[in-house]
Amino acid sequence: MTYQRETTGEGGVDDRDSFMRLLGGRTSAIDASLPPLAFGLGWFLGGESIEIGGGAAIAVGAAIGGYRLKKGARPLAVLISLLAVLIGALIALRTGDAADFFLPRLASNALSALVWMTSIAIRWPLLGVVVGTALRQGRGWRRDPALLKAYSRASWVWVGQYVVRLLVFIPLWLAGATGALTIAQVVLTWPLVAVCVAVSWWALRKSLPDGHPGLRHPRT
Hints:
By secondary structure, the protein is mainly alpha-helical. The protein has ten helices and no strands.
């Protein structure tokens, strides 16, 4: 049955499952939400102490990093995640404003939105780059006009994900609402990623013409 789905050229269940598996990112999203949650809880339970909140976030970030390294995660990815937590804690300690812990996340979302928009503009949509690389297609997906167009349209969904976070985070940060930022960070991490993956899959499939064999089989 699996062989039949993969070779029918309908771009159906097998493509969808591959797409969800490649981009679901549930583990990464959950990992990313835990240090901010630890910061917010530590800050609140510690009598609004940035030191306690920062220490809790760093401890949780280090524990997650150690666990991921043990599971075979790339050291560079682990280091970058931990560095973001450290920078956020240092900024908050420096300014004395707990809400500033979330500044690196604001910056990363703004930069990510800009990078994704640029990739679409230069006809190298990042969604296609990520999926095509994972499927070991090289540049094959770019030589399929229909697939290139579909990846470009679906990539706008990912731009929207970062924009949504910015629209929520920026007013809360300006208001110094540390507790609300903590909650927003959790809500707009894995749940938003899950919605983004589902909607971008729908946009991708909707953009492909009838009879196209799917993302596993670019027409080159």
